[in-house]
Each structure stands twice: as C-alpha cells, then as structure tokens.
Design brief:
12 helices, 358 residues, alpha+beta, two-stranded antiparallel sheet, single chain, 35% helix, 9-stranded antiparallel sheet, 2 domains
Length: 358
C-alpha cells in the first residue's frame, strides 16, 4: 500500500503582494461565491526550492531549472582553453540530448540554448561535462536512445526533480512524475486586493523649481489567513530517488520545514512579508488523500480569523473521519501559542520514509 504524507497549514500574511497577476495585482480566486486572495502552486514550489531548508538542508541534491545548460558548458570549455567554435560545437551536441535547441535567427550562428526549461540534476551536469570531454578526446559514444538513457539515468539524486517532477515534451520517456502535489493557497475568509497610491520626491528639486512629486505610482496589496495543502506520495518519492530512504527522509524533513517558513518573494522589499505558519497538521497513512479546503467554502467571518480557521479545519477533519472512517493512521499538530513544535513536525514527516508495509 502507498504511504501518503499530507500537510495542512494556516499562515497569516500582512499587507503584501507576494504573487502577482499579469497586471501586477495580488492573484485572486473565488471560493464559495466569495472572493479570496491566492498564492499560486507554481510560486509556492519555487519558494520551497529556494528556501534555506532546501538550499542548505539538501545541498548537493538539487537540480537547476534552465534552458542554458549548453551555454554554461560552452563557457566552461572556452575557459579551459578549447577553441570557441569547437566549444560551441560540443556544447550544442550535448545540449541536444536534453532538449531541442532554439533555431538560429537569420544570419546568426546556432547557439546551445534549449527551447524549454528543464530541471537538470547535479549528476546530469557532471555527466554532461564528462561527455563533452570524451567528445573532445575523440571517444566513440553510443547513439540515439542508448546515449539519452545514460544521460537521464543520472536524475535520481535530485530531490526537487523527485518531488516536483520533470516534463520533457520532446522525450516523454524521460519524464519524472511528481511525488509531491502542492495546492494553491487561498484565504480562509473573504479578501479583496487594495490599491496603494504612492509618490517619490526628487531630492534635488528645490521649492523654487516647482512643487510636486518626482514620480507617482500605485500597486495592489492584500492580507489574510491562507490555507495551504500539500500531499507527498512517499513511495513514489523513494522510487524517484532510486530507493534511497535516507535521502527521502531528509527531503521530507526539508519539505515540512520549508512549507512552514517559505514564502513567494514578490514585492518583499516593499512589504517585508516574512510570515510563519501558525498552525500545521500533518497526516500519515495509506488512506486516499483528502484536502480540507471545504472547511473554508463558507468564508470565515469571525473577528478571530486565525482561531476560527483552526477550529473550522479541525471540525471538517473530524467530520470526515466520522463519515468515511479514519483519514490517516497517525497525525500531529503544531499551533503557535498552544502546543507542538516545528521540530516535532519535521521528525514526523521524515519518519514517513521509514514506514514500511507489514
């Protein structure tokens, strides 16, 4: 049976704009007929990958999302003394193994830039460098699929690829199914974006030069209590990491810590938003996953938005347990000011990788 690890978090954001839409305003959603503020799944996953919990806790086990593997490889070869044309030729050949390359513009030279973003693991970077050196030395290399299999075999040590997956449209055989699903965070209550009008003063504009601001502008912001749900398929994570349970446990610990502390960084210099989750519930078991967004389908209207949000989430979990049977085998909670610690949450999450079927 598959083991699932589910995270339910409530985090209060101050006035801020961490995740913007195409007009620069806070992203929004409608739930239960009421407008809510929203943080996209994509922005949250990037925040997780860039968090200290990942960057420090999983150093050496993270991929790089880029189109520029070939560009970097070409630069490295040139710096090592390889002629520019030869360095570009080899870089193009290696980069083609990972993705199709952008066609050159009319009259320009082909460059080793991929058409799509792709996660590249540390081992794949190393393999690309080794392959380039072998090509320079004139070694005979496998052709076609055989060579590609050698390349993509080296993704097993990258935790972020194992967690969040990888899609290569040109080579679907080498896709990696995501072991971790991250939902869009939404406010538990009705919330609307507000507009901030601001001005900037020209320091050298003296009174005799005329009154008025040197610049006028506006931007949107909002605040609220956000509910975030994430679900990890522990067995798939271990499989994606080539059976390395120790690394999977370390990855789940980092995920738990990052979910509690990481945030998208849009307009952070303007608002200094650095929130921490005030409530976390983590569930572990073989049961079918369930998110608890329904707890907030009717928007919270209590003056104590944090407390009422916690109560509503707990009530729905209990109600579902009574209706469907226990939704998990074990669970743990942390509520700031009440009980539980992030260290306890982290240990519980990591232990999920050690749970084996009887």
């Amino acid at each position: 049976m598959t083991t699932f690890l589910q995270f339910h978090l409530l985090t209060t954001y101050p006035p801020s704009n961490p995740n913007r839409d195409d007009q620069g305003r806070p992203k929004q959603a409608t739930l239960g007929g009421a407008p809510r503020l929203r943080l996209s799944s994509q922005s949250l996953k990037r925040a997780l990958r860039e968090s200290p919990a990942f960057q420090q806790g999983l150093e050496g086990h993270l991929g790089t999302r880029t189109k520029r593997l070939g560009v970097e490889l070409q630069a490295e070869l040139a710096e090592s003394g390889v002629a520019e044309d030869r360095a570009r030729e080899v870089a193009i050949a290696v980069a083609n193994l990972f993705s199709k390359l952008e066609p050159p513009k009319k009259g320009e030279t082909q460059q080793p830039v991929a058409t799509t973003l792709a996660f590249v693991s540390p081992d794949e970077w190393g393999f690309a460098r080794d392959l380039a050196r072998k090509m320079l030395d004139g070694d005979t290399l496998p052709d076609g699929k055989a060579l590609k299999k050698l390349v993509f075999r080296h993704a097993d040590g990258a935790v972020d690829i194992a967690m969040f997956g990888r899609m290569l449209a040109d080579d679907p055989d080498f896709n990696r199914e995501a072991a971790v699903q991250v939902g869009h965070a939404i406010t538990t209550h009705r919330a609307l974006a507000e507009e901030d009008w601001y001005s900037a003063v020209d320091d050298l504009n003296k009174r005799e030069d005329g009154l008025g601001a040197g610049h006028l502008g506006e931007h949107g912001f909002g605040s609220g209590v956000y509910y975030l749900y994430a679900c990890a398929n522990v067995d798939l994570l271990i499989e994606n990491l080539a059976g390395d349970r120790a690394l999977a446990a370390k990855a789940l610990e980092a995920l738990a810590r990052a979910l509690a502390t990481a945030t998208p960084r849009g307009k952070q210099n303007s608002h200094a938003h650095h929130p921490r989750a005030h409530f976390i519930r983590v569930e572990r078991g073989h049961q079918q996953p369930r998110d608890l967004t329904g707890a907030f389908f009717k928007p919270i209207r209590d003056t104590d938005l944090e407390g009422a949000s916690v109560a509503s989430l707990r009530k729905l979990a209990d109600d579902l347990d009574r209706a469907y049977g226990p939704g998990c085998d074990a669970w743990v909670e942390m509520r700031v000011g009440e009980d539980g610690t992030l260290d306890e949450i982290t240990r519980f999450a990591g232990n999920a990788a050690e749970v084996r079927d009887a």
